[in-house]
Amino acid sequence: MMSSMVLLLVLAQVTDWTTEERRLASTFTPVPAAPKSLTNRFADDPNAAAVGVRLFHDERLSANGKISCAHCHRVEHAFTDQKRVAVGLGTGTRNTMSLLDVAHVRQPFWDGAADSLWMQALEPFEAPLEHGIDRVTVLRKIIEDDPLRKAFTKVFGALPDVSDHSRFPPATPRLEAPVALREAWSRMEAEDQALVNAAYANVGKAIEAFERTLVSPPAPFDAFAAALASGDDQAAARAISPAAQRGFRIFLAVGCRNCHSGPRFTDEGFHSNGTPPTAGQRPDPGRWLGHPKVLRSAFRADGLYSDDRASDQARGTASTPRQPDMVGTFRTPTLRHLEHTGPYMHDGSMSSLIEVVRHYNRLEGAMLDHHGEALLQPLGLDEPSELDLVAFLRSLSVQVDR
Predict the structure, then answer these.
(1) What band does 374 get if pLDDT is binned at 50, 70 and 90?
(2) Which of 37, 51, 191, 232 is the most exposed place for a label (fewest CB within 10 A)?
(3) CA 288, CA 282: separation in Å to the nearest integer?
(4) What is the secondary structure of 153-184 as a DSSP string?
(5) pLDDT band at 402 (very low <50, low <70, confident <90, very high)
(6) Per residue in 28-50, pLDDT tens?
(7) Of the residues 211, 241, 268, which one is the last residue of a structural domain?
(8) For residues 95 and 17, what is the distance between their CA atoms, to the nearest angstrom?
(9) Residues of the chain with pLDDT > 70: what percent?
């Protein structure tokens, strides 16, 4: 808990930055170029990205012909939907995460249910509450659109001929899919399953190529941090408000950077965030359920459809066993562009940034010490300090217009 003396210092001193604070500021900016996608050789191919953007916006790739990836990932909301939980064919249980700078994410989804961005891109198509379609039908829809088919085959090669519905019925092996679709898949020849999977993997790889282009511009905080690190206090003072400057100092002092570190303000790890369960619902198991989805997927980073099955990315999948301490843990989200991505938390249960700050400050009703993880402790901040933290978080946002 911060002492009242420390709080007074935080409020009184806005520009009297210490050497350590200046050093730490430099660790939060700039956001570097995204790492290479080792398991997708098309990841930085502009022609693949051009196909990916068409697939991303294609509503035909859903059971009702009305749902596209852009349905939940809207550019005007920093590629979120500003709803409590995602709504596709049905209502989900998780808040929609932003796609800005998503190429940096090692294990997408709140629960880490994918180990590459191209694997993540495939999951919503066959999710019953999202697109609710199957992989064979996705390929059929692409083939039926002659311009899209030509663009796709120019990048990835010929698509399988799925016109014979008895040989290639609507089908998927996904466990949560309707029984009829799973049984249809089990009746297909193994060679035909492989043909479908290989082409379907390329759908995900095209979408990843597009999503890797979703890069956020520098935020006001970046100008502040760069100036502060270089010793230009006047430029730092002009970059963000005094409240945001005080908020940054509080952010450093109370240990928020233990999880929200680096230029994207995330350690890319999985932690229990203490969010109380929604009334009448059981606690979300989080990564405990997400990790097995990776292990059983044909599209995992070390699987047959990976373009580098021996990469560090691929080896990470195979070397991570399911552990009890995964229960109730969720990926640490980036703190960038939060002003445009509410509601917040994995379940969208907090509607405003002040509500989030108060949750971590006071931990009222929080589920703490989950499976031995005790990162969270009440911070003891007063209300002005809470508001300063919110001002700092807002300084990490910038409007994106594509």
Answers:
(1) low
(2) 191
(3) 14
(4) HHHH-PPP----TTTS-S----TTS-HHHHHH
(5) low
(6) 999 999 999 999 999 999 999 99
(7) 211
(8) 37
(9) 94
Overall number of domains in the chain: 2
pLDDT of 12 over the 60 cut: no
User: Comparing C-alpha atoms, which of 73, 85, 202, 50 is closest to residue 139?
Assistant: 202
Kindly report the CATH number assigned to the domain that includes residue 86.
Answer: 1.10.760.10
CA distance 61 to 255: 44
Distance from chain centroid for Cα 127? 17
The counts of H helices and E strands in the chain are: 16, 2
CA nearest neighbour of 81 among 68, 98, 65, 58? 98
The pLDDT confidence band at residue 312, using thresholds 50, 70 and 90, is: confident
One domain, residues 156 and 20:
no
In this prediction, residues 195-223 reach a mean pLDDT of 98
Provide the CA 18 distance to its chain's centre, in angstroms: 34
**Contacts for 241 with CB less than 8 Å, ≥ 6 apart:** 391, 395
Residues 91, 197 within the same domain: yes
Rg (CA), the chain: 23
191 by Cβ neighbours in 10 Å (0-12 / 13-18 / 19+) ranks as exposed
| CA distance readout (Å), 262 to 217, 219, 250 | 16, 15, 17
